[in-house]
UniProtKB/TrEMBL annotation:
<dbReference type="GO" id="GO:0007040">
    <property type="term" value="P:lysosome organization"/>
</dbReference>
<dbReference type="InterPro" id="IPR003492">
    <property type="entry name" value="Battenin_disease_Cln3"/>
</dbReference>
<keyword id="KW-0472">Membrane</keyword>
<keyword id="KW-0813">Transport</keyword>
<keyword id="KW-1133">Transmembrane helix</keyword>
<feature type="transmembrane region" description="Helical">
    <location>
        <begin position="235"/>
        <end position="255"/>
    </location>
</feature>
<dbReference type="InterPro" id="IPR018460">
    <property type="entry name" value="Battenin_disease_Cln3_subgr"/>
</dbReference>
<feature type="transmembrane region" description="Helical">
    <location>
        <begin position="371"/>
        <end position="389"/>
    </location>
</feature>
<keyword id="KW-0812">Transmembrane</keyword>
<dbReference type="GO" id="GO:0012505">
    <property type="term" value="C:endomembrane system"/>
</dbReference>
<dbReference type="Pfam" id="PF02487">
    <property type="entry name" value="CLN3"/>
</dbReference>
<comment type="similarity">
    <text>Belongs to the battenin family.</text>
</comment>
<feature type="transmembrane region" description="Helical">
    <location>
        <begin position="162"/>
        <end position="182"/>
    </location>
</feature>
<feature type="transmembrane region" description="Helical">
    <location>
        <begin position="70"/>
        <end position="91"/>
    </location>
</feature>
<dbReference type="InterPro" id="IPR036259">
    <property type="entry name" value="MFS_trans_sf"/>
</dbReference>
<feature type="transmembrane region" description="Helical">
    <location>
        <begin position="21"/>
        <end position="43"/>
    </location>
</feature>
<feature type="transmembrane region" description="Helical">
    <location>
        <begin position="307"/>
        <end position="326"/>
    </location>
</feature>
Length: 403
């Protein structure tokens, strides 16, 4: 039997440093997406702040037989994603000043939580959501690009798992703390631990590599050509990137975010142990649970046909629109299982798209491709929010099948 090679004293520090780096990227994914998820989980409560000024919720319920916020949670989705889309469009074309970018991410995230929590007026709430969006978009496009300078692609796996954990922990923490009796203000202020943890990991744990554009690599791959860094050359990469990777990736996000922000509020079963607000929050928890499971599966399940994931997510959208209109599923548990499946598909699309880019794109083009692909989901999430608002309003006018 072959004896296991003993680890040398020189190898131990490197192994420990590699472990700290992977833990840090898991934390980066968690902290970067945490505020974004919390804002979406709190969307139903945030919009109630707007509606309570004129009693509009009661008017809608009395007239349409549905409990609907007048503005719909799609409005929060737009505020939570539109600034991010601008950041993700512009950032890949600028130098990767990673320390400046992460500092900006941490600061804007903290101010976002504070403004939404203190609720000075409705515009300060929206500004807080916008700052959270800026933080999430800048952090994602910057840290994904930064992964290509580390020697192992496991940083992509741990980042993806962390973003999935953000969905699960963020939605669950918000729902659980509210159910325990904490106010939304106290709950949101407690979330300031997230940007603090991100700052600690970035400047306290990670051993940052020396960035050399001629030697960006993953594992043993090394580029043989100089990095394509001019604007014209980067634009030339876009058609292939969009058709093969970004289009199916973006469609998955279009379908699922239309469901989450356009339909979740309308999937209300009145004769259950959960009230309307609780059902909305726990839909978010189940969705994020599915996302966490599939985003943590990179080294276990590999799916190369990402267009199939887009088709399956489109079928989920059709099923849940029909449920809102006709109420044919009858039981809350069935809808909850569909929502969990929706999250599994969304997370699988994310992790497999970035895995394919890291494996299939030429090393010299990976930094730009990783950053630019994150623009695709932002575009489609924005489109989902735009469509969700009028769709929500029209569906609210239909008689509820649940009464």
């Amino acid at each position: 039997m072959e004896e296991r090679r003993q680890e040398t004293p020189q190898e131990r520090p490197k192994r420990w440093q590699g472990l700290k780096t992977m833990i840090s990227f898991w934390m980066f994914g968690l902290c970067n997406n945490f505020g974004y998820v919390v804002m979406l989980s709190a969307a139903h409560d945030i919009m109630r702040e707007f509606d309570e000024t004129d009693g509009s919720v009661e008017k809608v319920k009395a007239f349409y037989k549905r409990e609907c916020n007048v503005y719909g949670t799609g409005a929060i989705l737009l505020a939570d994603i539109f600034p991010s889309i601008l950041i993700k469009l512009v950032a890949p074309f600028f130098p990767l000043f990673i320390h400046v970018r992460v500092a900006t991410t941490v600061i804007t995230s903290a101010f976002g939580f504070i403004l939404v929590a203190l609720k000075w007026n409705k515009w300060s709430i929206i500004l807080g959501v916008i700052l959270t969006s800026i933080s999430s978009g800048l952090g994602e496009t910057s840290l994904l690009a930064y992964t290509v300078f580390f020697k192992t692609k496991n940083v992509i796996s741990t980042w993806s798992s962390g973003t999935g954990a953000a969905g699960l922990f963020g939605s669950f923490a918000y729902a659980a703390l509210i159910n325990l009796g904490l106010s939304p203000t106290t709950t949101l202020l407690s979330m300031l631990v997230s940007p603090a943890a991100m700052a600690f990991c970035f400047w306290g744990l990670v051993e940052h590599p020396k960035i050399n554009k001629k030697e960006s690599y993953l594992e043993v791959d090394r580029p043989t050509v100089q990095d394509k860094h001019t604007f014209k050359e980067k634009v030339a990469l876009l058609p292939h990137l969009i058709v093969v990777y970004t289009a199916p990736f973006g469609l998955v996000y279009l379908f699922e975010y239309f469901v989450n922000q356009g339909l979740f509020e309308l999937l209300y079963f009145p004769q259950t142990f959960l009230n309307h607000h609780s059902q909305y929050r726990w839909y978010q928890v189940l969705y994020q649970t599915g996302v966490f499971i599939s985003r943590s599966s990179m080294n276990l399940v590999k799916i190369n046909n990402t267009w199939l994931l887009a088709i399956l997510q489109g079928l989920n959208l059709i099923l849940l629109v029909l449920e809102v209109v006709y109420g044919y599923m009858r039981y809350l548990i069935i809808v909850m299982l569909v929502v969990l499946w929706e999250g599994l598909l969304g997370g699988a699309s994310y992790v497999n798209t970035y895995r394919r880019i890291a494996s299939e794109i030429a090393p010299a083009e990976r930094e730009f491709s990783m950053a630019m692909n994150s623009f695709g989901d932002a575009v489609m999430i924005t489109l989902a929010g735009i469509i969700a608002i009028p769709s929500h309003n029209q569906l609210c006018k239909l008689k509820s099948p649940y009464y």
